[in-house]
Design a protein that fits this description.
Layout lengths: L3 H6 L6 E6 L5 E7 L2 H7 L9 H9 L2 E6 L3 H15 L6 E3 L6 E4 L8 E4 L8 E3 L5 H15 L19 H4 L13 H15 L4 H16 L3 H21 L9 E8 L4 E9 L2 E11 L6 H12 L9 E4 L6 H12 L4 E3 L4 H43 L6 E10 L2 E11 L2 E2 L5 E4 L8 H25 L15 E4 L3 H13 L6 E6 L5 E6 L2 E4 L5 H29 L12 H11 L2 H6 L2 H4 L7 H20 L1
Helix pairs in contact: 4-11, 5-9, 8-9, 12-15, 13-14
Length: 627
């Protein structure tokens, strides 16, 4: 049992981070302190105006722990890390699910590539970034590959050199084809080094080189090449200007302001670079029901700049924040240069902050309207369907469909909607095993039987393991089963559920002669639906999605069945030998004309197999010539 009185006495009078936990050991709150002894004890005093949220939190605290740090600055960094990792319920949180993109140069490979990456790993690659725009990163990678003719394939080089033909990039002169050994490792590395120079911001040499090539091509009347060099030159200039970051005083600023309502706040950031407004972004802050605005702003600054790709020389804030000097020191250390945190009171700077606050208000109001409309399309539409069917509650809906062409490759689809939105992670495909021929009812019976039998088995397994709160792929049963069709499909579903002793409402989505949804079949009655309602639109989306998912699966199976090579018909030639033949000879025509001795150059073939291949093509040729 945690003894609060004893543990409070042990608190050191040093800087650090404290962690409040509930009786289930879940972290409720993370905070930092200059003096842990005074700060943590303050939570357990009465009537000190902490606000209702913190008062509620204190009643839930079952124990606390703390980490002593060498300085308040170290405590600030640790606090940020713990909040980001644990998302405590009572901390004001930056609701930012963005992962910033990086440019990754795979220097650990013999022939490096330039790749897009969302993570930065401890490997032999070199990373540039993070950047704010994924589109700009992709454009830059495309430009670099075009400039320096680097490979974009996933081939394992040098192991796979010469095993396959060069790709299209080689033929259009955008790759040096190291996969064919057309360029030495040293020559290729020189191109990579130039790309690294570019990424490090050394554009002048590349610009001069492109300009000279452009002029030379123009003098030689090769206007097509000159135009190509001109386009590359303009692209490099554009990228160099976009990525330019200056350290001049006052030229790089972030202008930050917020707008708050009852449950959340929006923080608007204007990014000023080189004295120009180059972009803006907004961020949501949660758990702000009784938070004051300066405190929300302080929490945003700490959490945002702990992970942002670039720290400007100046932050212009809407309100004074409590830890301003400490945050300035922390940001200056991160940047490697002086950073100022200021609150402008008059003039153009103050008007910019006010403009950011107005934008934050507009965003919150617009999102509120958007969410209201979205709720009407989803949760509101589900409520309409529940009212039509006389059901108390619907959260999860499952719909099924069958697809085949004259009984070929019968397949079934199961799609899931939760709270009116599709949930693709729960979609399932069924390849019909017991039915041959076009019998949709029999196919549907098999699909539903397999789906619910599997679900019951999963439930039993989880119950045996005492894992009631866990879910398998079929464990959750729907609140409503929606069949693509009328009475026949509904009766099949009711029959399957009855045999398995499962009680789930089942309705059919009935279509008219023009194949458009006209109503719901439920409890032996067809219920008409107003076609202008959100409920009707949701039923149509469910029906279309079930049909689309089944059709796509059926199409993929047909495609696989149609992919057949002439080599498949040769006795004794399986997948490994087929692959070896194509890798060695490159085409069917070359294999046809190969002698037994030439075939024996392939390690995977013995003499009998080589002779069988020659005999197969000889007989095939004789057969075709006789006709």
């Amino acid at each position: 049992m945690f003894n609060f009185e004893e543990e409070l006495k042990k608190l050191p009078k040093e800087p650090g981070v404290y962690i409040m936990r509930d009786d289930k050991d879940v972290i409720l709150y993370v905070g930092k302190a200059v003096n842990l002894h005074n700060r943590v004890r303050s939570y357990f005093r009465e009537n000190i105006g902490r606000g209702p949220a913190i008062d509620k939190m204190v009643t839930l605290i079952a124990r606390f722990e703390y980490i002593v740090t060498d300085s308040e600055l170290e405590a600030l960094v640790l606090e940020n890390n713990l909040i980001k990792e644990n998302s405590p319920k009572y901390n004001t949180l930056l609701k930012d699910d963005k992962t910033y993109p990086y440019i990754k140069v795979t220097l650990g490979e013999e022939f490096p590539r330039i790749l897009f990456s969302r993570t930065m790993k401890k490997d032999k690659s070199k990373y540039f970034g993070p950047y704010t725009s994924a589109a700009a990163v992709k454009d830059t990678i495309e430009l670099l590959n075009k400039l320096f003719h680097l490979r974009t394939c996933n081939r394992n080089l040098p192991r796979d050199i010469g095993l396959e033909r060069p790709c299209l990039n080689y033929h259009i002169k955008q790759c040096l084809a190291p996969c064919q050994g057309y360029v030495s490792r040293e020559e290729y590395r020189e191109q990579v080094n130039q790309a690294l120079e570019f990424l490090n911001g050394n554009y002048n040499m590349i610009l001069k080189d492109l300009e000279s090539k452009m002029k030379a091509a123009s003098d030689a009347l090769d206007f097509e090449s000159a135009a190509g060099y001109r386009d590359l030159y303009n692209s490099v200039r554009q990228v160099s200007q976009k990525q330019k970051i200056t350290d001049s005083v006052g030229e790089d600023k972030d202008i930050i302001a917020l707008y708050q309502d009852e449950s959340e706040a929006v923080v608007q950031v204007f990014f000023v670079r080189d004295g120009k407004l180059i972009g803006r972004e907004h961020y949501y802050m949660t758990h702000v029901s009784d938070g004051n605005k300066p405190e929300i702003l302080e929490n945003f600054v700490k959490q945002f700049y702990a992970g942002t790709p670039f720290i400007p020389r100046e932050l212009m804030l809407q309100y004074e924040i409590g830890d301003r000097e400490l945050i300035e020191k922390w940001l200056s250390d991160k940047k490697g240069g002086r950073v100022y945190v200021r609150v402008p009171k008059i003039g153009s700077k103050e008007k910019l902050v006010e403009l950011a606050a107005q934008n934050a208000r507009h965003i919150l109001e617009q999102d509120r309207e958007r969410l209201k409309r979205e709720e009407g399309r989803t949760i509101g539409a589900v409520k309409e369907i529940a009212e039509i069917l006389g059901l108390e509650r619907i959260e999860r809906m499952e719909a099924f469909d069958i697809s085949n062409i004259n009984g070929f490759e019968n397949v079934g689809s199961m799609i899931v909607f939760e709270k009116g939105k599709p949930k693709p992670s729960d979609y399932r495909k069924f390849r019909i095993k017991t039915v041959s021929g076009p019998d949709d009812y029999a196919c549907m019976r098999e699909v539903l039987t397999r789906r619910f039998t599997h679900g019951m088995e999963e439930r039993e397994e989880l119950a045996e393991k005492e894992m009631e709160n866990e879910y398998g792929s079929f464990t959750r049963f729907p609140d409503l089963l929606m069949m693509d069709g009328g009475r026949g499909q509904v009766n099949i579903a009711l029959s399957v559920l009855s045999e398995l002793h499962i009680n789930i409402p089942v309705c059919g989505m009935v279509k008219d002669d023009n194949h458009r949804t006209r109503g719901l079949y439920f409890n032996n009655v067809e219920l008409p639906i107003d076609t202008h309602t959100e409920g009707f639109k949701l039923i149509t989306r469910v029906q279309d999605e079930a049909h689309r998912f089944a059709i796509e699966y059926h199409r993929s199976l047909r495609s696989k069945a149609q992919v057949k090579s002439v080599l498949d018909d040769i006795p004794g030639v399986g997948p490994a030998r087929r692959k070896a033949l194509m890798r060695h000879f490159k085409s069917i025509e070359e294999i046809k004309s190969a002698s037994v001795e030439e075939l024996l150059e392939i390690p995977e073939l013995n003499r009998r197999a080589a002779e069988d291949i020659c005999d197969f093509f000889r007989k095939k040729e004789e057969s075709s010539s006789s006709h």
